[in-house]
Automatic annotation (TrEMBL):
It comes from the Bacteria. The active site is at E138. InterPro entries: Peptide_deformylase (IPR023635), Peptide_deformylase_sf (IPR036821). This is Peptide deformylase. Fe cation binds at C95, H137, H141. It catalyses: N-terminal N-formyl-L-methionyl-[peptide] + H2O = N-terminal L-methionyl-[peptide] + formate. GO terms for molecular function: metal ion binding; peptide deformylase activity. Keywords: Hydrolase, Iron, Metal-binding, Protein biosynthesis. The gene is def. GO terms for biological process: translation.
Length: 168
């Protein structure tokens, strides 16, 4: 496995919509494994392909406690949100592509997602709480949406000024 470089704002690739994966083959499985290794090392709980510069619909997530042997990685190709609950919740989010920045984001509390797993099988999964939030955050990346895009323009502009200033 290999550690991959994580893109940060304002890299334009983070704002692009990703293309679907034709099939999950050896290249995609290796990419999923490399993405998981990169995510764990960062450390993070989710990573999307555009964050490593690939405009493909692949995400990996793991919201387990990360105790030795307790990892529960989920790798998804072509994830599609089929249902979002009307019930929402607000939580503080961050992103590996916007280091050291956190903000409260409102998202649906529960989701149903369809995806292709690392074996090439189509799966559907109902998720709630942190897993639902993490999958929504990563699917947003596949559509060129960052978590700060869910904030008011005033808050988003303040964050981008802070990021730009820190980058100097």
């Amino acid at each position: 496995m290999a550690l991959l470089p994580i893109l940060t704002v304002p890299d334009a690739r983070l704002k692009k919509k990703c293309a679907p994966i034709a099939n999950v083959d050896g290249r995609v499985v290796k990419l999923m494994d490399d993405m998981l290794e990169t995510m764990y090392k960062a450390p993070g709980i989710g990573l999307a392909a555009p964050q490593i510069g690939l405009l493909e619909r692949i995400i990996v997530v793991d919201v387990s406690e990360h105790k030795e042997g307790a990892k529960e990685p989920i790798a998804m190709a072509n994830p599609e949100l089929l249902w979002l609950s009307d019930e929402t919740c607000v939580h503080n989010e961050g992103c590996l592509s916007i280091p050291e920045i956190y903000a409260d984001v409102v998202r649906p509390k529960q989701i149903r997602v369809r995806y292709v797993d690392r074996d090439g099988s189509v799966q559907e999964r109902d998720c709630d709480d942190l897993l639902a939030r993490c999958i929504q955050h990563e699917v947003d990346h596949l559509n060129g949406v960052l978590f700060i895009d869910h904030l008011s323009s005033l808050k988003r502009n303040m964050i981008m000024r802070k990021v730009t200033k820190a980058g100097r």
